[in-house]
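Audit log entry. Action: structure prediction of a protein-small molecule complex. Ligand: calcium ion. The ligand was supplied as SMILES and no pocket hint was given, so placement is left entirely to the predictor. Protonation state taken as written. Sequence taken verbatim from the request; no trimming, no tag removal. Recorded inputs:
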Amino acid sequence: MIRVVFLAIALTLATVAALAAFDFTDSQSVVATHDGDKNCSDFPNQEAAQDHLNAHPGDPDGLDGDDDGIACESLPCPCGGTPTATWHLR
Ligand SMILES: [Ca+2]
Ligand SMILES: [Ca+2]
């Protein structure tokens, strides 16, 4: 009986591990396949980079190096999706 319980637990753990591994791989591939890694130089202006950052929370492309929520400050306007009022004053 103990052996059966142990087997059931082992099977459950194996299933959970397999599912976890699958989910991890799946989410990783989604991140990795969003048109590859983007850089600021891939966008014509700040607005386009900001739209991309807004569409990819967590900044997987590293467009917001100083982590202030604003992508590619160095790019020319039009600028969009500004999350803070202070940015407008600069
Ligand atoms: Ca990048
Ligand atoms: Ca920034």
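Audit: result stored. The chain has a mean pLDDT of 76. The chain has two domains: 1-33, 36-90.
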